[in-house]
Amino acid sequence: MKTKIQPLVDIVDSGQLFNLYFDLPGVKESDLNIDIEDHVLSINAKQLIGDAESSAKCSEKYYECRYELGETINLEQIKAKIEQGVLKIDLPKIAKKSPTKIKIEVA
Question: What are the CS domain coordinates in residue numbering (predicted)?
Answer without folding.
Answer: 4-102
